[in-house]
Every structure is written in structure tokens, then in C-alpha cells.
Write a structure and sequence with these properties.
Helix content is about 35%, strand content about 20%. It contains 10 helices and 8 strands. Helix 2 runs parallel beside helix 8.
């Protein structure tokens, strides 16, 4: 643990760039998700840490006095492969949007960042635009948009402006495009800075946003399948290193598995974390015995395809 604390900057400065390069190389044709876009989703989740005085002072308590201290984990995930691209770990009181701002510079060119309504803020979206990044975010009823300001030459019915009243004296409006998608419960509204329909059609926007579900599956795999809903270290710095190691382990396991799945011509989004864990653990326990390539075995770790009559128990879910 002392060695990890002493060399923790190596993780961000050396290891993470190499892992992101490995994601690009492993993805192959799956790197370009759809219509020339590299689709990435962003979302956050809270991770519990032991209820110690040091952790409570560093992280603060959760939503109520009885809850554990918590860390905020915000993760960017590559849609085409389901692999994590980048993440940030902070005390749970830290805003997910601020964590995302720290990861913007490491987004690849032609990235389309997909997010839910939590990420609809003037500061964040203006930062993405200034950085030359594209986004697709859902908006809620609490967001007020303006129309017909006449500030752009090519204005269509879908042209809108995000310009909070308290910023109007000192900051310009954000010129965006509003996409209205019909869904089961009525309509969903998406906001993007890709203003040309030929670059991002309504159909493609609906498809991309639907792919956000994979991030929830990823978090469930981390918490349940890897049994990391709660960290075990009683000190704050060690707990953060523990979660960092968990994420790197998940990424490396995913890289090996997805590489084998793609070689078999299968969909990498069918990867089963639980099956991969069994293969790796069996290989560790029987390392003296000759066996087929580990990558080949991991290439068979896909979710089962049979249709269930009853839902699985949460603790036994295949991911």
C-alpha cells in the first residue's frame, strides 16, 4: 500500500494512456460506433467505504446519518465495446459535472458524448463546445430554452438557445439543436451541438441515447459481480486506491475478454463479466496445467441467450 501511495501518479500519467490506446486497438471496426461517430457515455455512481472516523472526515456521510461515507465514481465508457475509457474518483460531495470537465481533454476526436439530464448545465456544455467536443444530452422540464433570437444565419425549427437569465449580461447564448423523440411514455427531448441533421439524424440520436443502458450494467457488474459495492480500506487514500485498482482490473479483464469475443466474430456488448471471472480464477488455480489460450477461453464468455420465464435474483444476475 505504501508503494501504491508513493507511485499513484503513475496510474494517471503512464498506465491510463496505455489502457486507452489498448481500447482503441482492441475495438477494431467497433471503434466507430455509427455514422462516423465514436460514441461515449458518461454517468456516475456512489461507492460505499467503511464507516471510520477518517473516512467520515474525508468523504462526509451519505444521504442520511445511517449511511456509509461514500465516494463518487464518474465513468466514461466506449459504447461500441462496453469498455471504460476514463474515470474520476472523489468524495461523494463532488459534482459529477466537475469530474467530467477534468476528462474532456482525453476524449478522442469525433467523439459524441452521451449523457442524461444531470449534465445539462451552461458551464459544462459551453466547456465542451469550446474544447471542440460534441454531445447529446437529455433535458428535463426544469431547463428553459429560447427560440427565434435570430443570432445565427441558418436557423431552423429545431434551433434553440441555452441562455440562463442570470448569465445574459456577461455570457453569450449556446446555439443548440433540440431533438424530439417519441417514446412509450410520451416524448423525450435531446439537446446537441451537432446542428446539421445530415451529421446526426433524429433516428441516430435515438439509437445513441438508447445505448446509455450499458453504463448501468457496467456499474452493476462492478458492484455485484466484482463484489465492490463497498470498499474495505479504513483510510481515505487507501480506499481511493482500492477503487482505482478495481477499475483498472475491470478494464484489463474487459480488454482481454472483448479481444477474444471480437476474434470469434461475436458482439463485444454480449460480454459476461461473471463468466470471465470464472475463467481467470480457474486459470490462476490451475496455472501449472496446460490449457488452451486464456484469450480463447475468454472469447467464449458471453451472456446466455435463453429466455427466462422469471427474472433472476439480483445477487445472481449474469452481466
Amino acid at each position: 500500500m505504501k508503494a501504491l501511495r508513493r507511485n499513484k501518479n503513475i496510474l494517471s500519467d503512464n498506465i491510463m494512456p496505455e489502457l486507452r490506446l489498448a481500447v482503441r486497438q482492441t475495438a477494431g471496426s467497433e471503434w466507430w460506433t455509427h455514422c462516423g461517430w465514436i460514441a461515449l457515455t458518461v454517468d456516475g455512481t456512489k461507492m460505499d467505504v467503511p464507516r471510520t472516523e477518517a473516512n467520515e472526515n474525508a468523504f462526509g456521510k451519505g444521504e442520511n446519518d445511517k449511511s456509509h461515507p461514500q465516494m463518487m465514481l464518474t465513468t466514461i465508457r466506449h459504447v461500441g465495446t462496453g469498455l471504460p475509457w476514463d474515470w474520476r474518483i472523489d468524495p461523494a460531495r463532488r459534482d459529477e459535472r466537475h469530474q467530467l470537465c477534468e476528462m474532456i481533454d482525453d476524449l478522442p476526436d469525433r467523439a459524441l458524448l452521451i449523457a442524461d439530464a444531470l449534465y445539462t448545465s451552461y458551464d459544462l456544455l459551453s466547456t465542451l463546445i469550446q474544447s471542440g467536443k460534441n454531445f447529446l444530452v437529455r433535458i428535463g422540464s426544469n431547463v428553459r430554452l429560447l427560440q427565434d433570437l435570430g443570432l445565427v444565419k441558418r436557423q431552423t425549427n429545431s434551433t434553440v438557445y441555452l441562455w440562463p437569465k442570470y448569465l445574459q449580461e456577461n455570457y453569450p447564448p449556446l446555439v443548440l439543436r433540440l431533438i424530439k423523440i417519441k417514446c412509450d411514455k410520451g416524448y423525450m427531448f435531446l439537446l446537441t451541438n451537432v446542428r446539421m441533421g445530415c451529421q446526426l439524424s433524429k433516428k441516430d440520436a435515438a439509437y445513441f441515447y438508447e445505448m446509455r443502458w450499458g453504463t448501468e450494467v457496467f456499474f452493476r457488474s462492478t458492484k455485484q459481480t466484482l463484489e465492490r459495492r463497498k470498499m474495505r480500506c479504513a483510510a481515505p487514500e487507501q480506499a481511493m486506491l482500492e477503487l482505482q485498482g478495481t477499475m483498472i482490473g475491470m478494464m484489463v479483464l474487459g480488454l482481454m475478454s472483448v479481444r477474444g469475443i471480437i476474434r470469434r466474430g461475436k458482439d463485444p456488448l454480449e460480454w459476461s463479466v461473471a463468466a470471465s471471472l470464472k475463467v481467470v480464477r480457474r486459470a490462476i488455480n490451475n496455472f501449472r496445467q496446460k490449457s488452451i489460450s486464456l484469450i480463447c477461453e475468454l472469447g467464449n464468455c458471453i451472456k446466455d441467450q435463453y429466455v427466462r420465464n422469471n427474472p433472476k435474483e439480483i445477487g445472481r444476475a449474469h452481466v
